[in-house]
Amino acid sequence: MSGASSTLPDAMIDLVDRLIDAADRRGWRRRGKSAGGLRDAQDELVMRRAALIAALDVPAAWRDVAIERRRQINAEGRSLEHDDGHVHGEIALAAAQYLLPSDKVPDQSWARSKAKHDRRRQLVIGTALGLAEIERIDRAAAREAASPAPVLSDPTPLPPQAAAAIAAARAID
Which of 63, 68, 100, 162 could form a disulfide with 158 if both were Cys (CB 3.0 to 4.6 A apart)? Predict the structure, then answer.
């Protein structure tokens, strides 16, 4: 993408993303048609977002990964809140299993079902899952940076004799 010409499309995609996320937070997709056609409107936004991405000067692989990530969120219900609940590397493991050749995935793995996809599609899904893990890590870091530093305290109180000895030593100084 070139610098100046990508500003408007990037801003448009950001706006559509925010509209989609706002609809998700309000539960429009979960309520379906009873929300007065809002689900249809949100689905239209998702499709328009995909078209905007396709119009940008980026490789097809990048577009496909971005579209797959959005599909995971909207069609599979893998919301940001859902992803934030996976703090033990589950999303990264799923990504790795999709990225590995089928003969390298452990037999007990749920990712064996990936065989229904061709190799390119497996890589797109795995890369989108990796992107989900990066996004989750970034959100966790932002939350941690925004939260006040914890006050450290000793959870184990000193025995009375030790506390008295420390107080006496401080009194001498």
Answer: 162
3-state secondary structure of 75: coil
Torsion of CA 5, 73, 79, 129, to 10 degrees: -90
pLDDT single digits (tens) 27-70 = 655 544 444 556 666 677 777 777 776 666 678 898 889 889 98
Q: What is the rounded distance in angstroms from the CA atom of residue 52 to the CA atom of residue 58?
A: 11
Inter-residue contact 137 to 88 (CB < 8 Å): no
Of 148, 106, 99, 156, which is closest to residue 124 (Cα–Cα)? 99
Any idea where the domains of the chain sit in the sequence?
1-58, 59-147
Question: Two tokens at 95?
Answer: 């990504």
DSSP string for residues in 85-115: T--SSHHHHHHHHHHS-GGGS-TT-GGGGGG
* Predicted structure pTM score: 0.56
